[in-house]
Design brief:
heterodimer, A: mainly alpha, about 75% helix, globular, B: alpha/beta, four-stranded antiparallel beta sheet, 12 strands
Chain lengths: ~350, ~270
């Protein structure tokens, strides 16, 4: 145990260092190369208000174009991975991810609906944009799924997963129909569905940051209870863990976190599924460590994918595609290795 | 221990429980005292597990009154109850690869504040129960890679780490081999004698009950049929009435416990051809 927590702590420090370095490195990359020293100077200048003799264009590119997008990648990736970890722990299902309760379908439906209505000539009132509708769609779906599952007083994972699957199936049929209606404009919907961080601004960061950190803190508070949940509902209840209450709180907290992210970035798959698995393989299943390390790992993976699509590839590829293309094969290797070890079933 | 020292733990007054209109337990009047080793016996579906679930607050009685230490069980907070009563379920399944030590440490949960970590005393207790259950050599192994018997010993160790006054065993040893079954029950038995632990064990095996328990509770179809000391109720007439089999009970000089041998009544043979 002590050995394991020691290793977890080291992993945490390594991940944090990697993440901070990557943030700086990523800011140097792009159409205009900016030396790392200049990036650090810009950041310092912005944080302390100290004077800087840098070219104003460089300052603008780094602070207004690159940093918000980089921070969004870190925050969105981190939140998705944390929510994936928590969902897998409360639903006792290694296949669970932040979208298991239909959050993504709800957001996609909200966004597609508005896009199609715009195609048919609707002009959005000022202050309302696609993200707002995506968020509303997520909330509506979450409400529908939870009220469907809450007929089961124990709020069992089977009821929750089944409710999520049913509602998502209905919504994806509806989304299919909307795509059909969108006709030639279907590309906008598809691009949104696959996720992108290209339009992110500082306003998004102002919303994302408190949501991400408050949510992370809330999840960390329940780390020990989440561990106990792994021994089954009956055993957990006799250890004084209120399993139903725990499920309610964490499902709602994580779904709200996810909904905020999805409204900013569109649907980015795979981070929430894969990062918890990779880290569990590395440091073990202790959620007291796993939750915070997932945040760092998820942020790192999404930042890597986003930098690739933003600055390395000749054309912007939807980031959801990249996360799956990068993470997928990596996951397969680990999965094969674990099968060989006889630990694949977790 | 003198009889008048005895302290009442659970007091059941006309307790009933059911799912929908299907009743599982009916009109139960029972009194369980501290420092005993109770065996809950009865055929499949007689309500043994349900009774244990009522005892540890997992289920709430539909009718009647259920008190623990003179206080209605619904008035107990779950953490407070968890410091008093621990349960060892029949099949202890852990979903992720927690190490044996991590799982046993979970037993300390009801004793810890939200931000507290294990103290030196907690670690010592965890070490000693792991040793007692013979899982100390497995401490760093993931529970997912243990055999059924090893897993069950981890479950008992975890329950003991809870430092409870009462241990509920729900068929806790039915998947264990004879050696481990007897040695675990023997260790628990010693805690009953030496530390005044109370045990309520749902059991299938009457011989094991004769070895392990001093008080027996016989249930059938959700009703209490007999309750008493082993000498009083481990009797052929009782066994016939509860299980529908012919039995002989004799004091076994070898094990020092009453032993039961059975056969299906001869009339049944005729029916089944």
């Amino acid at each position: 145990m002590t050995g394991r927590s020691g290793f977890s702590a080291v992993t945490g420090v390594v991940l944090l260092t990697l993440l901070l370095t990557s943030i700086v490195l990523s800011a140097t990359m792009g159409y205009m190369k900016v030396p790392a020293g200049d990036v650090l100077q810009v950041i310092l200048h912005r944080l302390t208000g100290a004077g800087s003799e840098l070219d104003p264009v460089t300052v603008a590119v780094v602070t207004d174009v690159r940093l918000p997008r980089i921070l969004a990648a870190v925050l969105v990736g981190g939140v998705l991975a944390v929510c994936g970890t928590v969902f897998q722990a409360i639903l006792l299902n290694p296949l669970a991810d932040p979208y298991t309760l239909g959050i993504s379908s709800g957001a996609a439906f909200g966004a597609s609906l508005v896009i199609v209505l715009q195609v048919f000539g609707l002009t959005l009132p000022p202050g309302l944009s696609i993200p707002v509708f995506a968020f509303a769609g997520s909330l509506g779906t979450l409400f529908a799924v939870l009220s469907l599952a809450s007929g089961d007083r124990r709020l069992s994972s089977t009821s929750l997963i089944l409710s999520g699957v049913i509602v998502a199936a209905i919504l994806s049929a509806a989304i299919g129909f909307l795509k059909f209606l969108a006709d030639e404009q279907v590309g906008i919907i598809i691009f949104w569905l696959m996720g992108s961080l290209s339009g992110v601004s500082w306003q998004n960061i102002v919303v994302l940051t408190p949501v991400a950190f408050a949510g992370l803190l809330a999840c960390m508070l329940y780390g020990r209870e989440l561990n106990i949940m792994a021994t089954g509902e009956r055993a957990a209840a006799t250890l004084g863990v209120n399993t139903v209450q725990l499920r309610w709180i964490l499902l709602v907290v994580c779904s709200l976190m996810t909904a905020v992210c999805v409204s900013v970035s569109g649907i980015i798959g795979f981070v929430g599924l894969i990062v918890p698995h990779l880290l569990r393989h590395l440091i073990g299943p202790d959620n007291r460590w796993l939750i915070v390390l997932s945040f760092l790992g998820g942020g790192l993976l999404l930042l890597f994918a986003d930098t690739l699509t933003r600055a390395v590839l000749p054309a912007e590829v939807p980031i959801g595609v990249l996360t799956a293309l990068i993470g997928g094969p990596f996951f397969c290797v680990i999965f094969k290795k674990r099968q060989a070890d006889g630990t694949a079933g977790l | 221990m003198a009889r008048q020292d005895s302290e009442i733990l659970w007091q059941l007054d006309q307790v009933g429980f059911g799912y929908g209109d299907q009743s599982v337990l009916r009109d139960l009047d029972l009194q369980l005292e501290k420092g005993h080793c109770y065996g809950v016996l009865g055929p499949n579906g007689s309500g043994k597990t349900t009774l244990l679930d009522l005892f540890c607050g997992l289920l709430v009685p539909g009718t009647g009154k259920l008190e623990l230490c003179g206080q209605s069980l619904s008035g107990w907070q779950s953490r407070q109850l968890a410091r008093k009563v621990a349960l060892v379920p029949q099949d202890f399944v852990v979903r992720f690869g927690f190490s044996v030590r991590e799982v046993v440490e979970m037993g300390r949960h009801p004793h810890l504040g939200r931000f507290a970590t294990l103290t030196e005393t907690d670690h010592e207790l965890v070490d000693s129960v792991m040793k007692e259950m013979g899982v100390d050599t497995l401490a760093d192994r993931p529970v997912t890679r243990l055999s059924g018997g090893e897993k069950q010993r981890v479950a008992v160790a975890r329950a003991l780490a809870q430092d409870p006054e009462v241990l509920l065993l729900d068929e806790a040893t039915s998947n264990l081999d004879i050696y481990h079954s007897l040695s675990i029950l023997g260790l628990i038995r010693r805690r009953v004698r030496e530390q005044g632990l109370t045990v309520v064990a749902a059991l299938h095996d009457l011989n094991l009950a004769g070895f392990f328990c001093d008080q027996l509770i016989f249930l059938k179809k959700g009703k209490l049929l007999y309750q008493g000391t082993v000498d009083e109720v481990l009797h052929p007439d009782v066994i016939r009435k509860v299980y529908g089999v012919d039995a002989r009970v004799r004091e076994d000089g070898f094990s020092g416990c009453p032993q039961v041998s059975y056969r299906v009544p001869s009339s049944e043979f005729r029916v089944s051809g």
